[in-house]
Amino acid sequence: MQQRLPAVYLTVLAFLVSTLAYSATVVLPDFTVLVEQQSPSVVKISTVASRKPISHSQTEEDIPELFRYFFGDQLPEDFEFNPPAPSEGLGSGFIISSDGYILTNNHVIEGADEVNVRLTNGDEFAATVIGADRASDLALIKIEATDLPAVTVGNSDNLKVGEWVLAIGSPFNFEYSVTQGIVSAKGRALGGSDRYVPFIQTDVAINPGNSGGPLFNLKGEVVGINSQIYTRSGGFMGVSFAIPINIAMNVADQLKEMGSVQRGWLGVEMYPPFNDDPDLAKSLGLERPEGALLARVIKGSPAEAAGLMADDVLIEFDGDKIKRYSDLPPLVGVIRPGTELKVKVIRAGKVKVLSVKIGVFDEQSLAQKGSVNQPESDNPLNIIIEDAGSKNGVVVLDILDGPARRAGLRKGDTITMMRNEFVRDKGDFDRIVSDLPENGAVAVRILRGDNIVYLAIPTK
């Protein structure tokens, strides 16, 4: 008599068969050929920075603790302290041309008196720094050699989130270590001096010594330069950042040609909180807080010449959509000065298209221009206001450093009451703030978009 398996067993059996069949179709990438072919293009970089003698002209903090114990801050005549050993550094890089040009991070070679390069075959060379760019954290160095194995440069714009990538470098002096992962995100803004770099975020394990090394795609093309990690412990925590190769090669070309980097300049200051404030977006005529809200247009800048204005929301730059304020600086920075292009803004709820001729970014001249005609406040809250027009209240035009900024007052807020008194115009505002207590706080009622907000602004 034929026995039949219970239905539950048949279901489990079918599940196992389908799972095994699916597993058989999933093929994880094999990096062995890629590593074999591309490793010779990766180099180990070591640096030496001599420490300057400490003389009597230097400060107490520069003197070793033992000397401070005996001498305090009064050093004997002709005193000189020589540290026992120079400072040494370690990083990675990769060959971009067969005649010896190598790309790495600026922070790998910055301040070094000697830069040495070691190839996979053991050959060592003294390198010359052709140029370095702190803003992008990139440096171009060169060794005197020929017929070197150069990398194949890819297109970082074509990278997709979820794509497999691989890094080769020398973490902790373990030469030519290989780590792999995926692209976690693109266009990450880290701020600071890196504002011109839309970083590639990956989960590739990156540690000290990996800096400056290449990030490869599965085709064996370099798509990025491993640069930074996010960490709370000092070690890798699953979040690393790479400079897109398209930006790196643009910088390398300029360093090779001129020894420095020219960046495009628009001449605007943005308001970052806008991208997290739906109410402010609606008050400016937008459905959602997308774009870059311009808080100030610098006098004499390309932006001013093009007709851009404070309170414009820039939503498109040379055909590229601007989702967040951090999208704009990298796009402007890579534009050659003198280029004319179109920008699209939202102004008073309406779309406007303007033509702008990109200028040259120069920190020194920018600081001078930025210091001209700076707004000045005539009140203890350190804010710039004007009458709200047909409506009662005063509109906040600018917020300088002070108690109002720290309390959370925003540009565009309309102040309607202070200390339980209505503020109909600037006259009411000036009268009220002229009699504020020296140590305390003033209650301020503001209209922010369609919402009413109360703030307590300190007066001390």
Write structural notes for this entry:
- With 460 residues, this protein is α+β, with helices and mostly antiparallel strands.
- The chain has four domains: 37-142, Thrombin, subunit H (Beta Barrel); 153-258, Thrombin, subunit H; 264-371, PDZ domain (Pdz3 Domain, Roll); 383-458, Pdz3 Domain.
- The chain contains eleven helices and 30 strands.
- The protein has a seven-stranded antiparallel sheet. The chain has a six-stranded antiparallel beta barrel with strand order 11-12-13-16-15-14.
- The longest helix is centred in the first third of the chain and has 19 residues, at 7-25.
- It is globular, with a radius of gyration of 29 Å.
- The N and C termini lie far apart (96 Å).
